[in-house]
């Protein structure tokens, strides 16, 4: 029996420019692996189906390509995050305002974090 995350990775890799080698997805940065794992976990928990995810990701990739986006796959995980954001909004699990507020909080936390220290939301000076 195959593992669900392996099935999801294979399904996603079939028609998308996912950065990969012979053993599966590859990640240039830790956040890419975290984004990948988050989507796999949400799909495994039933938040959305593999088909819903494939449709959302495919739409983001098609939109980026139509706008002249990177065709070599180097922006793949940016599309991944956009697809996740839009899918969660469509399912009513968050809102554009909620995403924007959280992004702003992360940016403030990054600005307030000393160099070399981990960026934590708790470092946002406006966080209550």
Automatic annotation (TrEMBL):
InterPro entries: CN_hydtase_beta-like_N, CN_hydtase_beta_C, Elect_transpt_acc-like_dom_sf, Nitrile_Hydratase_acc_put. Residues 7-16 have a biased composition (Low complexity). Gene3D superfamilies: Nitrile hydratase, beta subunit. Residues 16-109 form the Nitrile hydratase beta subunit-like N-terminal domain. Signal peptide: none annotated. Pfam families: NHase_beta_N. Residues 1-25 are annotated as: Disordered. NCBIfam families: nitrile_acc. This is Nitrile hydratase accessory protein.
